[in-house]
Design brief:
With 127 residues, the chain is of the alpha+beta class. It contains 5 helices and 3 strands. Strands 1-2-3 form a 3-stranded antiparallel sheet.
Length: 127
C-alpha cells in the first residue's frame, strides 16, 4: 500500500516533538479518520522559519506527510512556506494511496494554520 519513502518517513520521522519556544502553532484534524496534526514553528524577525516540529496522532501517511512537510518549510520564508501545496508533499513522498491524500491536505493546512497564528497573534502582539 505504501511506497518505500513513505515507510521510511513513518519509521524515522524528521522534526518530531513539541517545541517549547515556538512562536507559531497550527493544529488541524480530520474527524472522519481521526488524524490530528500539530505544527510548531520558530519564525525569526525576518519571517524565516528557523525551526519546525510536529506532533501527529494518526496513521502511517499522516506521520509521513507531517515529517516531509516540516522538512520542506524549514529555512523558508513564511511567504514561500504558504505556497507549499499538498500535491508537493505527495510528490516529495513519491506518492500516496488515493484514500490517504487527505493526510497531505492536513499537512498543508497545519502549516497555513501555524503561519496564520504567527501573523494574527504573535506578530500583532509584538507591535
Amino acid at each position: 500500500m505504501y511506497n518505500e519513502r513513505v515507510l521510511k518517513e513513518f519509521a524515522n520521522p524528521q522534526n518530531v516533538g513539541e517545541m517549547k519556544d515556538a512562536n507559531a502553532v497550527g493544529t488541524v484534524g480530520n474527524a472522519t479518520c481521526g488524524d490530528i496534526m500539530k505544527i510548531f514553528l520558530k519564525i525569526n524577525e525576518n519571517d524565516v522559519i528557523e525551526d519546525v516540529s510536529f506532533q501527529t496522532f494518526g496513521c502511517t501517511a499522516a506521520i509521513a506527510t507531517s515529517s516531509v512537510a516540516t522538512a520542506m518549510v524549514k529555512g523558508k520564508t513564511i511567504e514561500e512556506a504558504l505556497k507549499i501545496t499538498n500535491r508537493q508533499v505527495i510528490d516529495e513522498l513519491g506518492g500516496l494511496p488515493a484514500q490517504k491524500i487527505h493526510c497531505s491536505v492536513l499537512a498543508e493546512e497545519a502549516i497555513k494554520e501555524a503561519i496564520n497564528n504567527y501573523l494574527t497573534e504573535y506578530k500583532k502582539n509584538k507591535k
